[in-house]
Amino acid sequence: MSDNQNLLAEQRRALILDEVRRRGGVRVNELTRKLKVSDMTVRRDLDALARQGVVEKVHGGAVPVAEASTHEPGFEAKSSLELTAKEDIARAAAPLVAPGSAIALSGGTTTFALAHHLLDVPDLTVVTNSVRVADVFHTAQRAAAPGGSHRPGSATVVLTGGVRTPSDSLVGPVADQAIRSLHFDVLFLGVHGISVEAGLSTPNLAEAETNRRFVHSARRVVVVADHTKWGTVGLSSFASLEEVDAMVTDAGLPAAARAEIAEHLPQLVVAGESERTEDI
Question: Are 170 and 130 in contact (CB under 8 A)?
Fold first, then answer.
């Protein structure tokens, strides 16, 4: 059987993962018929999903991994997952930032990728609770102005302070107080999980409160999340989908998920595709 060339590997794996989560398990022979690909291709896809830790291979197929809602991977662990998707999302989200605007970037590996694409946007004010994101801008400024002077047009970066999480975000009362007094044109928000029922969620209770403050201080909220975040639910919800103005994701997001998101969000941007829901 020849492989179905109409689906990219990431899209195919997203469909498989959606099927595993929806049905509680799948068999290899069922997937070969459904996706019209070879047995070897399906097994390679299951191997890749197992390495990501989202499915467990069993004899003849795979079942979902029941990850604890309180488990929070470290930054390095998360940064190795869905690299292509995160880069695509960052590239698609960057044009949403206007020169001279005040933006906020929450912690996370996708917002970290986005920060690299904003270095040439002039006169930004960037508020972040991510040590990694702040370092992207500070490193670029040092490289451009070795003497320590502030390069004209470079971003002004405000790091909130707070208690450091495993994902190198700063949370807690200090961060919350800093964010409470500020107002942002746009917030770019990375999430642990997103779903219709739970909205936006995280396994870290303190981070949930800090993210809640971010959402309340922003005129526009843009979620940047790859397709694997859809259907994941962390311990604590901090915003409903109705509080989100736009979501930027990758092409691996299944059609059914896109339809659900479109019912709740004014704008859905799929990286690499021209189609969007109604623009804000």
Answer: yes
Nearest residue to 11 via CA among 45, 60, 44 = 45
What six digits make up the tokens of 181? 């007094």
Element (H, E) at 194: strand 193-195
Rounded CA-CA distance 156/159 in Å is 10
**What integer pLDDT is reported at residue 279 of this predicted model?**
47
Largest CA distance in the chain: 63
Band of residue 218 on the pLDDT scale cut at 50, 70, 90: very high
| Cβ atoms 72, 204 nearer than 8 A | yes
Q: What pLDDT shows up at residue 61? A: 87
pLDDT tens digits for 88-112? Answer: 999 999 999 999 999 999 998 899 9
Sheet of 55-58: strand order equals 26-27, 61-64, 55-58
The per-residue pLDDT of the chain, averaged, comes to: 85
**Smallest Cα–Cα separation from 111: which of 97, 138, 93, 84?**
93
Determine contact, residues 192/203, Cβ cutoff 8 Å: yes
Report which of 134, 123, 191 is spatially closest to residue 157, judged by C-alpha positions. Answer: 134
Q: Is the pTM of this model over 0.85?
A: no
Sequence-ordered list of residues with C-beta below 8 angstroms from that of 267, at least 6 positions apart, any chain: 245, 246, 247, 276, 277, 278, 279, 280
Identify the helix (H) or strand (E) that includes residue 26: strand 26-27
Report which of residues 72 and 226 the model is more confident about.
226
Distance CA 11, CA 253 (A): 7
